[in-house]
Amino acid sequence: MPKKRHQSKYSKPPSVAPASLRLSSPSQPTSAEHGRSVNELLANLRRSTLNPQSIEASVSAATAPSVPPTLRHILRLPEPAVPAPRRVPRHRGRRPPPGPPPPRSWVALSQSRHATPSTLAHHGAGGQIRHWSMPGAYAPVEGSLVDMVLRHMALDWSQQRDWNRFYLYTLPSRLRSALLANVSEIYGPGVSLMDLRLVLSGPSASELAEYEVEPPDMDLLNSDVFCLDLPNSIGKSLSLKELHEFLFGPKKVPAPAEDAVQDSWDIPAPLVGPVTLLPNLTHLSLGVNPGSPLSVSWKQLLSLAGKLTSLTHLSLAGWPEPSLTPNAKLAKVISPTTGRSVQYGGTGPYSHTLDGDWTESILVLKRLSKLLYGLEHLDLTACGDWVRALREKSDGEFTVDFVDWSGDWGKITTLRLNSGYELPPDSSEGQVLRFSDWIDEATAVEKHIRAQRSGRGRWITVEKDVLPDNVRGIADRARAIG
User: Fold this and answer.
1) Fewest CB within 10 angstroms: 141, 194, 237, 247, which?
2) C-alpha angle with apex 207: 205 to 209, nearest 5 degrees?
3) pTM for the model
């Protein structure tokens, strides 16, 4: 039985145009146009990409709707351009962060606190020094939302402390510590006593009662505040005496017992006074800028240190030489026994340079070490003019006084002796020599401490500057001549 043949309803269109269309076309495509090789097509593509006119044509062609290959040959349209790759070619090195670049205001705002030492360099001795943050203290990530908000609040602190006076003390403890650090560094006048009250204890009781706000529980409000960073504020907008009275209150006096009768004579009288404001304070930064007309007192520091025995981190960046009578450096008095003029204070104008006498500085540092015997980190940035007292000895009447690095300060593991500046490119020979002397003195202190401990105490790391290679020859030549 013969097989039935079914003709397909749909068939592949012919590759050649029908006769009717071929006759109407002005010119027939040659076989060479249909038989171009791949290399010829690539060469034509390269020539078209090198020609700017062809680039514009290819762009316009790419935006035009697509045409089947058969009609393209009939209508004599140019070949379509190769589409651009969707994936951007990867660059060598670190991949840039996704998204658009940050605005200029954000970048300019993050340059002050996290600036490099080169931006903080100063040609004179009385400029701004670099203050390092306390290790272990909370600091928001640079450029984060919290960082930007705190810095904007510090820039507009004169308005923020008035409009938000009933909300500042309700912030989390770490945010309040970071806010005080930003205000102390960015805000021109610095942190005042009123600012400390608003952030750490809130408005006064009369203000809270006027607006019917419940006062905070002072025993719990600052129980987890352990860092107080006040660079550039001590001596300018806040004195050590004010800080002492704010943290511990005025001197406590016995309460007058008018109606109350004591059960026994042996029971001491109750004392009146506020509770300790920061009972768990371990990090304290009291840095100043050297050369500026600030009034800082070592006597007040010793009085404050007597109640801060729990401190583990202390910064005295930029402080002057230790002395209990700094204003009497040039004063002299007449001795009633000999009739001769003698130095009134413990340190004279030539005590360090000519006599090599560091007795008063050693005694002050020794008293400080006995009070703050729990220190683990000590920052003495920009104190290169008197760090020699850390390794010197003074002969007393019956004893030899010196700073005990194996006993009183035997727990210190980090001692920062940086200069706080960076040498400018056009430094004079005097600036280079002074910078080099600071580095040599820091190295001598490091050797002295390690020799005194003799491997029995903790290992200490002394952070110091490094003399640049471009000026090392000036220092070596000066040493050879001297």
Assistant:
1) 141
2) 70
3) 0.69
